[in-house]
Amino acid sequence: MVNFCRSSQRVLVFIAGLAVFWAPAALAQPKVKPGLPNSFVKTYKMDDVVAARSRGNPLHRGTIIVTLADGAELPVQFRLFARGGKLGIINSVVLEDLPNGLLSQLARNPAIDTYHVCV
User: Fold this and answer.
1) Which residue(s) pair with 92 in the sheet?
2) Are 94 and 118 a contacting pair, CB within 8 Å?
3) Mean pLDDT, range 1-25, rounded to an integer
4) What would the pLDDT profile of 44-77 be if each residue is shown by its tens digit?
5) Residue 55 belongs to what H/E stretch?
6) What is each CA distance from 28 to 9, 44, 108, 109, in whole angstroms?
7) Can you give the residue range of the structural domain that contains 65?
8) pLDDT digits (tens, 9 = 90+) for 66-117
């Protein structure tokens, strides 16, 4: 009889321990609808490295990945720099040897969603 009480006490302690450790994790789930960005997503047109390049020497050149807006095509003035076709999964294009002086034009163009440095 004593062993039965001890084993039932162990089970109760185990269940209570699970409840204590599992409940905070279950309650801490983010309240974000599927398919929408959460609070960790940055909303910017250009990343920090590209922003620094745009303020630098306008004659220096670099390679960037440009994400296009939904349904948009790459503007004509940037097609000269496009290499390798479209990256369909992320709706992007790689622009090589793009002068830093043109980065501000990318920022103002509504067909461009975001762009990032290609390392």
Assistant:
1) 67, 87
2) yes
3) 64
4) 777 777 878 888 888 888 888 888 888 888 888 8
5) helix 48-55
6) 29, 27, 39, 40
7) 48-117
8) 888 888 888 888 889 888 888 788 888 898 888 888 888 888 888 888 877 7
In whole angstroms, what is the distance from residue 103 CA to residue 11 CA? Answer: 64
Domain-embedded: residue 110: yes
In 9-91, at which residue ranges do the beta strands (DSSP E only) sit?
61-68, 82-87
* Continuous H helices in 1-119: 2-27, 48-55, 103-108
DSSP state of 29: -
pTM (two decimals)? 0.61
List the CATH number of the domain containing 76: 3.30.70
The amino acid that residue 90 corresponds to is: I
3-class SS at 110? coil
